[in-house]
Amino acid sequence: MRRILTIEDDAATAREIISELHANGFEVDWVSTAREGLLRAVGSVYDLITLDRMLPDLDGLAVVTTMRQVGVQTPVLMISALSDVDERVRGLRAGGDDYLTKPFAPDEMSARIEVLLRRRQTAAPNITLLRVHDLELDLISRVGRRRGIDLDLQPTEFKLLEVMMRNSGQVLTRMMLFEAVWDFHFDPGTNLVNVHMSRLRKKIDPAGLPALIRTVRGSGYVLEAPV
Amino acid sequence: MHANPHPWRSTTTRLLAIYGVFFSAWAIVLLSLIYWETSQYLTEETEHLLGERAEYFASIDPGRLRERLESTYEFDLLHLNAYGLFNAKGEPVAGNIHAIPAGLEPDGHGRVYRERFNGSETPASTRILAIRLRNGYELVLARNAALIDRLHQLISRAIAWGLSLTVFPGLLGGLVLSIRPRRRIRSLQAASDRIVTGDLHQRLPLSGRGDELDNLASVVNRMLDKVERLMFEVKNVCDNLAHDLRTPLTHLRAQLYRLQQQTAAEDIRAATIDQAVAETDDLLARFAALLRISELKDEHRRAGFKRLDLIEVLHQVYELYEPLAEEKSISFKRFFPNGSLQIQGDRHLLIEAFSNLVGNAIKFTPVSGEVAIQVLIESAGARVDVTDNGPGIAPDQREAIFQRFFRGDQSRSTPGFGLGLSIVEAILRLHDFQIQVGNPPIGACLTVLCWPAPLAYDSAGIVAQEQTVGLALS
């Protein structure tokens, strides 16, 4: 069973996190102080840590920095009420792997956690060719192919497809896509990502072929081999 | 915003001018009175003298008259007097008046003539009187009244000098004295302009002299203190409310989401639940935007400003929204100068601001409409116009669109919640940029003035773009 450590001082938020994680089949340990969190993170093995940025005894940034200094490489999802881009950058620079702003939708959190866990398993940064079912993406020549036929992809579409294929089989929320593809961190409204996605879908899922990109109701999109 | 106070309109200048006019009028009245009294007296004296002489000569035996006349006038050393004796036919018999002046009746009443007197060059006022003697001869006696002329001249000159010495220094003094008050008014204006544009920390400057202006300014300042405190309280309440409501809303959303996950898409309740989730997301986004605006008002953000290329930012925004425009069959154009436009700013925030403007333009433009982003390099800096041919913004709403929660009449049917432009405004304010609502014949035009001037404009170009030219949009 996959284990997650939740360092969060607000009981209500903690309950929210725990129930969502339980629903997704995780075992959760909850601590409410940075000190205790650090001890647990160093002392036992976790698949992932969710870390509140503002803790009563210590700044979340200090926690993650300390963890990385002592050699703990567990992925860290930082959760913070500070929504600013600067804060986000600071959080990632300190050693966090992703940054989620409070309040957040639980499905957004679990989608991010899944991606972080997967990234760890398939840590092969040197791949030059991504393949899902009959879809190929050559990262060197920057060409996409479906059933061996070249796809005419714009740079944004290529980037979007690359992100989807790197995380194939995983639900990616619109916010995650907006961050990963464009590196923008504001709320553009739901429609914007949808429009870019429908453009991409027209190209890679033409009529007659089984669709690879699937809309996940209420959450986002997933790219995977058809069943 | 305000007309600069005209020097002639200042209170000091006006007071001095009015005072000058009154003073001059009084001086004129006084001098005129003196003139009138004096000339009256002199005239009477002359009349009297002439009358006495006429009476005297009339009493003298006509045979001895010539002799007596000559001896009398021999001693008129000042040549103030003249006489003429004429026979019954009007021919001159004696004296230095050789013709009877026209219209002179021998009735013993003096009349005023302008004559050249006793060889003087210029004609002067002369009082002349004629009498009929017993032998039928006519005696004409004249007396120079130039003294009255002189008096007249003297007093006129006095008035002229007096006026010029009062009025001109008065006006000049007024202008000079009004310089300081006008300078103070200008600084008061500048301060209130800054307050009007939203800088509520500003206070009206006090001169420390404790005069009426200072009193007024300190009253206004006290008022501003109060207004600022109230605004701060309202803002705090707003922010706290947004903050406090966000947590229960998040829980609500989480539960709805769980319900959504448990409901199969075929279930008839699924659509309602989807709707509820979407509405909750909307509410959450609203609160997030509210808090974002408060965050952006914090000036510390400027510390993170870096050098960036505005044109590149705009290209990114263009590419981000291009599919959305295409979906609505909107012709979406960009008119950017070649090259880079370096400014100091926050890339993420500027992208957010311009995305908002472009997103709005696309949202409010009907299907098959037109939207354009245009960059113009001006001497003062760069300006970015975002234009569309949608319904436009009514003139009376142009100020209000930047207020939180404002939604135009036309936009009620379009999704959104009226916080976008407040965020844009907050971001631009942070950059010291200005946003203006233009007045195009059709549609809307929002102009961002990226002033002060950019750090550098490299027209040599780093990237050749497919769309260039500074074509004017029509």
Report what the structure shows.
The complex is a heterodimer of chains A (227) and B (474). By secondary structure, chain A is an alpha/beta fold. Chain A folds into two domains: 2-121, Response regulator (Rossmann fold, 3-Layer(aba) Sandwich), CATH 3.40.50.2300; 129-223, Winged helix-like DNA-binding domain superfamily/Winged helix DNA-binding domain (Arc Repressor Mutant, subunit A, Orthogonal Bundle). In chain A, 41% of the residues lie in helices and 22% in strands. Chain A is built from eight helices and twelve strands. A five-stranded parallel β-sheet of chain A has the order 2-1-3-4-5, sandwiched between helices. Chain A has a four-stranded antiparallel β-sheet with strand order 6-7-8-9, covered by helices on one side. The mean pLDDT of chain A is 89. The longest helix of chain B has 51 residues, at 146-196. In chain B, a hairpin with a 5-residue loop joins β1 and β2 (92-95). The radius of gyration of chain B is 47 Å and the shape is rod-shaped. The two termini of chain B are 29 Å apart. Chain B has a five-stranded antiparallel β-sheet with strand order 2-1-5-4-3, covered by helices on one side. Mean pLDDT of chain B is 81; it is low at 460-474. Chain B contains eight helices and 13 strands. The A-B interface holds A 12-13, 16, 20, 23, 83-86, 102-107, 156, 182, 184-192, 195-196, 198-199, 217-218 and B 246-247, 249-251, 253-254, 257-258, 260-261, 265, 274, 277, 281, 284-285, 288-289, 291-292, 295, 301, 304, 316, 319-321, 323-324, 327, 346, 348-349, 351-352, 355, 359.
Going by CATH, the architecture of the largest domain in chain B would be 2-Layer Sandwich
Structural domains of chain A: how many: 2
Coarse shape of chain B: rod-shaped
CATH topology of the largest domain in chain A: Rossmann fold
User: Mind telling me the C-alpha Rg of chain A?
Assistant: 19 Å
Major β-sheet annotation of chain B:
5 strands, antiparallel
Oligomer: heterodimer
Number of β-strand runs of chain A: 12
Query: Can you tell me the overall shape of chain A?
Result: elongated
CATH superfamily of the largest domain in chain A: Response regulator
CATH class of the largest domain in chain A: Alpha Beta
Sheet-strand content of chain A, in percent, reads 15-25%
Question: What structural class should be given to the helix and strand makeup of chain B?
Answer: alpha+beta
CATH superfamily of the largest domain in chain B: Histidine kinase-like ATPase, C-terminal domain
Overall pLDDT metric of chain B: 81
Number of helices of chain A: 8
Task: Give me the secondary-structure category of chain A.
Answer: alpha/beta
Kindly provide the name of the CATH class of the largest domain in chain B.
Answer: Alpha Beta
Q: What is the spatial order of strands in the main beta sheet of chain B?
A: 2-1-5-4-3
Cα separation of the termini of chain A? 26 Å
Rg of chain B, rounded, reads 47 Å
